[in-house]
Amino acid sequence: MHPRAALTEIAELLERERASRYRSQAFRAAARAIDGLDDEQLRDTDALRRRKGIGAATIAVIEQSLAGRVPDYLRQLRGASEPVVASALRGLLRGDLHAHSDWSDGLTPIDQMADAARALGHEYQAITDHSPRLRVARGLSAERLQQQIDIVRGIRDEAFTLLTGIEVDILEDGALDQEEGLLGELDVVVASAHSKLRMDRAPMTRRLVAAVSNPRVDVLGHVTGRLVAGERGTRPPSTFDPDAVFDACAEHGVAVEVNSRPERQDPPDDLIAIALNAGCLFSIDSDAHAPGQLSLLDHGAARAEAAGIPPERIVTTWPLDRLLAWSRG
User: Fold this and answer.
1) Structural domain boundaries of the chain?
2) What is the DSSP string of 83-115?
3) What is the pTM of this model?
4) Any idea which architecture 3-80 has in CATH?
5) What's the number of CA atoms in the CB half-sphere (13 Å) around residue 154?
6) Is the bond leading into 267 cis (omega within 30 degrees of zero)?
7) What is residue 82's predicted lDDT score, i.e. its pLDDT?
């Protein structure tokens, strides 16, 4: 395999495993550093060492690839990586409505997220970077979001469409953390709570009901905010009246997100059952922060299939024209 392909696959595997972002970024930087070099230039190790972004580990990958071998580190990662979770539902998914770029807290530029989505066979992919209040995630001001909209709209072809979007923060009173008019310009609005997750049950219920009652909202993201594993540790779920929240989602046509990140598993199974009984729509999303995490959809699809969610009630199985008619309606 070509050294650039080997470096990129290593980065993708590290991303899927949610390894340290610095490790995956190092291999992506090396792939960029050798872009356009021919084999003769790649064999000039001394010159490679002088290139920014190239180090001992990445030189080893380049040398072993040029020798016609699968690099040792790539072989190790392939053997240790978690298996893809098989489900019939995964093959029905046409796209993904929740993913981040380096405009907020994602790791890579928008075009790389689009390329990775195309490679997975997606028909559409939404870029939903964070809103202004989430400063730790470099949330987008109205001005930056408008700039991003113009860029995203330029990335589409006959087989693939990149959708404009946002993961807008739900404020304590249920208001949305972005200008209302600007939200109306977007293809997809995912609304999520990121702060004060330990609010008492009654005010949290009012907060979520108010958010999903806003006609700009399309998807209710990781509804409980829980973490069940991973580097960030664990976090208990928020408490709220699920009947009230999911009845409001059903009334307003808001999809409940099945978040595919294994460290979230959100909503829990019992809440998925309540949302099903309420007549809710669902959206299986990756919440990817790097290209290699877009493939985490297999986890969400397996959970949704096990929970008995009918495919026709999952908006990410819909063709683009039906999806946009729903989100814009």
Assistant:
1) 3-80, 89-328
2) PPPP-TGGGG--EES-B--TTTT-SS-HHHHHH
3) 0.94
4) Orthogonal Bundle (1.10)
5) 7
6) yes
7) 80
